[in-house]
């Protein structure tokens, strides 16, 4: 199977995820600037999740660029990733509406952790389908960001019971790590 349908489906799901997140933003009923103050946690959680969805969309695009064929296991792994990403709107809204309370912040971290694991699984299945000369394997190399992100998510998720703000800081840290353009796949692609 070609990768075109997989890319189109994934792009559509990610677009819907962003749409659902923005529809969760409720406008104030007054024109007073002070009416925005209670919405600050909601807006901040939306911005963080929008950045994460953007990071996943960008990296997923590059990941599929290296894929020559799509196997059944790759399709299922991709659905697994999309499942966890589809929970972003729920945990984003819950966390923002509850002003970053411990349980919603922990749930957000669990979803981030599971999405990261699902992405790694998808990456390994694509590498496995390409054989010993895997373009993706050469591109990701030691993958320090990919390996450290789930560990940081786990630490952040566990820390929510002591300090939800520390967890938030760690979630932002991982997002900032991935905002730095990752050119590994592009660099390997342009060698050919």
TrEMBL record:
Reply yes or no: does the keyword Transmembrane helix apply: yes
- Tell me what topology the record assigns in the membrane: Multi-pass membrane protein
Q: Name one Pfam family in it.
A: TMEM175
Note the superkingdom of the native organism.
Bacteria
What reactions does this protein catalyze? K(+)(in) = K(+)(out)
Main subcellular location: membrane
Q: Where are the transmembrane segments?
A: 35-55, 75-95, 107-127, 151-180
What compartments host this protein?
A: Membrane
Keywords from UniProt, A to Z, are: Ion channel, Ion transport, Membrane, Potassium, Potassium channel, Potassium transport, Transmembrane, Transmembrane helix, Transport
GO CC annotation terms, alphabetical: membrane
Question: Family, per the entry?
Answer: Belongs to the TMEM175 family.
Provide the protein name.
DUF1211 domain-containing protein
Q: Which organism is it from?
A: Methylomonas denitrificans
């Amino acid at each position: 199977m070609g990768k075109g349908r997989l890319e189109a489906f994934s792009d559509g799901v990610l677009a819907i995820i962003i749409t659902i997140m923005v529809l969760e933003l409720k406008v104030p009923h007054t024109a007073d600037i002070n009416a925005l103050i209670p919405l600050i946690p909601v807006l901040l959680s939306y911005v963080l999740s929008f950045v994460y969805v953007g990071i996943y969309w960008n990296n997923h695009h590059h990941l599929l660029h290296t894929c020559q064929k799509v196997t059944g296991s790759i399709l299922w792994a991709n659905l697994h990733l999309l499942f966890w990403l589809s929970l972003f709107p729920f945990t984003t809204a819950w966390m923002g509406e509850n002003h970053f309370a411990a349980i919603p912040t922990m749930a957000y971290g669990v979803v981030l952790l599971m999405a990261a694991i699902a992405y790694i699984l998808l990456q390994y299945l694509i590498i496995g389908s390409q054989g010993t000369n895997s373009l993706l394997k050469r591109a990701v190399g030691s993958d320090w960001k990919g390996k450290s992100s789930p560990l940081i998510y786990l630490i952040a998720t566990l820390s929510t019971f002591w300090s939800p703000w520390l967890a938030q800081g760690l979630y932002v840290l991982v997002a900032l790590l991935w905002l730095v353009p990752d050119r590994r796949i592009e660099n390997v692609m342009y060698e050919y």
